[in-house]
Amino acid sequence: MIAVKVVDRQGQCATFSAESGQRLLQAGLASGVGLPHECATGTCGSCKATVVKGDVRRLWPEAPGAKALRSANETLLCQSAADVPVELSLRANFIPPYEPAPRETKGELSLVRELTSEVALFSIALRDPIVWQPGQFVLVSGLGIEGARGYSMTREVADPSRIDLLIRKDPSGRFSTALFDDLGRSHEVAVFGSLGRATFSCDEGRPFIAMAGGSGIAGILAILNHAMNGGHFSKHQSKLFFGLRDAASSYLLDEISAAVAASQNNLAVTVAFSNEACSPEFAARYPNINFVDGFVHDVVRAAMQSGAVPADTNPIFFVAGPPVMVNATMRMLVTECKVSPAEIRYDRFG
Ligand code: FES
Fold first, then answer.
1. What CATH number has the domain spanning 202-348?
2. How many angstroms separate the CA atoms of 275 and 14, rounded?
3. Quick one: CA dihedral 333, 267, 219, 172, positive or negative?
């Protein structure tokens, strides 16, 4: 085992051990150390650290998150491994550690249902159940392809050793391409989790405004599912804004429409199509859903500015989707709608 020492911006120090070749972020989080991160897959840049002593192996130097690195001594903890003892310093402070600490297990990944030609619902039968909260995600790796991908759990199921994930085919991604090339086949995968702080509990006793772009809906659906099962909608009116390209690429609208009905309309859902207007015939299939044209963050802005989202209800804001959509929505909420960043929960991954 390799000794790893990390010092944060305030001078707080933590130590943990990593196996040679193990990703330092995963090793630290599994040891109960609150290493800062969001995506855990090399996209966001929030896990960057400076190598002060020793050295690390960069596992994916071209990771999109590496754009956040400013010197040759800096590295992404989620894309680094150590073969010798190493000391690192963080620009940020440690975050509260997960409870329980995430860990790795194995599982069998298989298709549940194809939703469109590029989005499908999969399940993983886990060897050991993992504990997760609505809004969290896991890292999945396997199929002989290097690296891990983050996918949100999409609904609560009775069997604790099963998790359901929404996976989008990314034409530039070898993992999802391999999955979609042979949907009938199941795969042995490694699962690390649970991760993510954009979580929700009915015990919080507050309404929520959720905004999802594309497959970012997965974690939001788990939140809806939890809210439904916990009686949230009998006490609080909440809203969902869901951005999709067009009617042809839409999915899960039956489930969302059923959630609106079960909430007795205390959940209001708006679906925004960015590429084309929604036809009256299509809209008529989902009378519980309000269809509009435009990008989802523009639609949310208009709703906020028209007073359709009253600030005095003290809502929690959830933003989920690709980093570009999350960044645009965060900017809009904070700078234009004056929402406190402390009230917005998000994880940029994808
Ligand atoms: Fe490492 Fe996002 S780049 S957590």
1. 3.40.50.80
2. 48
3. negative
> What whole-number distance in Å separates Cα of residue 109 and Cα of residue 134?
20
> Which atom from ligand 1 is nearest to the alpha carbon of 48?
1
Domain 103-195 CATH class label: mainly beta
Give the phi and the psi of residue 68 in degrees, each rounded to 5: -80, -10
Query: Which residues pair with residue 125 across a beta bridge?
Result: 108, 162
- Quote the tokens at residue 36: 């800062």
Q: What per-residue confidence (pLDDT) applies to 350?
A: 58
CA of 59 to the centre of ligand 1 (A): 13
Contact present, 330 and 318 (Cβ < 8 Å): no
Q: Which atom number of ligand 1 is nearest to the Cα of residue 76?
A: 1
Pair of tokens at residue 192 = 């690390």
CA of 317 relative to ligand 1 center, distance in Å: 22
pLDDT grade, residue 349 (50/70/90)? low
CB neighbour class for 224 (10 Å; exposed up to 12, middle 13-18, buried from 19): buried
Residue 312 has pLDDT above 70, yes or no: no
Q: Is the ipTM beyond the 0.95 threshold? A: yes
pLDDT per residue over 145-203, tens digit each?
988 999 999 988 878 899 999 999 988 889 999 999 989 899 999 999 999 999 999 89
Ligand 1 binding residues, C-beta < 6 A? 37-40, 42-47, 65, 76, 78
Q: From 3.90.226.10, 3.10.20.30, 3.30.1490.20, 1.10.3210.10, which CATH number describes the 2-90 domain? A: 3.10.20.30
Sequence ranges of the domains in the chain: 2-90, 103-195, 202-348
Query: Are residues 168 and 216 in contact, defined by beta-carbon separation less than 8 angstroms?
Result: no
